[in-house]
UniProtKB/TrEMBL annotation:
<protein>
    <submittedName>
        <fullName>Ribbon-helix-helix protein, CopG family</fullName>
    </submittedName>
</protein>
<dbReference type="InterPro" id="IPR010985">
    <property type="entry name" value="Ribbon_hlx_hlx"/>
</dbReference>
<dbReference type="InterPro" id="IPR013321">
    <property type="entry name" value="Arc_rbn_hlx_hlx"/>
</dbReference>
<dbReference type="GO" id="GO:0006355">
    <property type="term" value="P:regulation of DNA-templated transcription"/>
</dbReference>
Amino acid sequence: MPKISVEIPQELLDDLDDHVGDDGKFVNRSDAIRASIRKTLDLLDEIDERHGRLAEEDDDA
């Protein structure tokens, strides 16, 4: 799995950390960030689909 480096404002990191750990929904920060990216991409796909911007998938590919 590729690794990336990003700059995140401290306030976002603090908020993220509230959801990570034994009492949180996510095991670690990476898990939380991956889940957030997946959810955001799904939402963007839904928006694109409503606006007819998604390319049709080619079954022969």
